[in-house]
Amino acid sequence: MRIHAVETGRVRIKKAQIEGRGHGTWRQLQPILSAEWADWLPVYTWAIEHPDGVIVVDTGAAAHLKSLPRWHPYFQFSVRFDIEPEQEVGPQLRGLGIGVRDVKTVVLTHMHIDHDGGLAHFPHSRILASSEEIARTAGIGGAILGYLPKRWPKWFAPEPLAWQPTAYGVFARSARISAAGDVIAVATPGHTPNHLSVVVRDGDHEIMLAGDASYLESTMLGGTVDGVSPDEAVAAATLARIREFCVQRAIVYLPAHDPDAAQRLRERRTVGSQVLVREREPVAG
Ligand SMILES: [Zn+2]
């Protein structure tokens, strides 16, 4: 199956957002209070050329994110975007020969601004999202959490993801995206309480489009919770579950902001033995 990594510009956040420092409220304040910026990171969306039609996972950043509400300390002090209109997902898909009507389905891992930023490019697609995640964006509470639902297109009416109690591998809840069940959503709570990931089965391996389940493959392997997950224990449990998934199966793990993700996709490089090395470390130490 052809899968494209589409880089919709770059984002810059604090190191303490990528790797949480300390615990509790202290950890969640560090992305704002810390002065240490990380390097610019890519903002990936994914386009799967599937027999059902093209499936896009996340819609990436958009040029409108270069201007953010100034009253919010996170927007003012903790995040910067570098993206021009032609780098948005729509024009880039057209460059790959994928037209707006070819995209039958869009799946959103969560509703953060660099994942729903490109929604305007998909007026003709079925758009799937977690209804609990959508509910979290509403009102003043949603604004404080950094969601920008006012920037969604007027026509935006996502279809709630139909979760089944059926486990998929180590994941307790799953939802079929493709009719054949070779593209499936799994619940990966942590970064947001209803965050999801999309797994694509392709021959002898699976590709996990992980959204912000972790910012990097290395932080997933290290079990390092990020600086924004509301519940550290839930996030840590999900990272452990993903590691277990990668031990049991051949998984190419692709977070949305990992600078090596596109290369790993090209090579179909699975996490494989790296998990086992990490798992042995505590024993060796
Ligand atoms: Zn996010």
Nutshell version of this structure?
This protein has helices at 15-18, 24-33, 73-77, 89-95, 113-116, 131-136, 139-144, 217-222, 232-248, 261-267, 273-284, and strands at 2-13, 41-50, 53-57, 79-82, 103-107, 126-129, 159-160, 174-176, 183-187, 196-202, 205-211, 251-255.
Main pleated-sheet profile: 7 strands, mixed
Tally of contiguous helical segments: 11
Coarse morphology? globular
* Record field, number of beta strands: 12
Order of helices and strands: EHHEEHEHEHEHHEEEEEHHEHH
Residue-averaged pLDDT, rounded? 95
Radius of gyration: 18 Å
Helix content: 25-40%
N-to-C terminal Cα separation, in Å?
41 Å
- What percentage of the residues does DSSP assign to strands (E)? 15-25%
| Spatial strand arrangement across the major sheet | 4-1-2-3-5-6-7
Q: What class would the helix/strand composition place it in? A: alpha/beta
Catalogue the unreliable spans. none
List bound small molecules. zinc ion
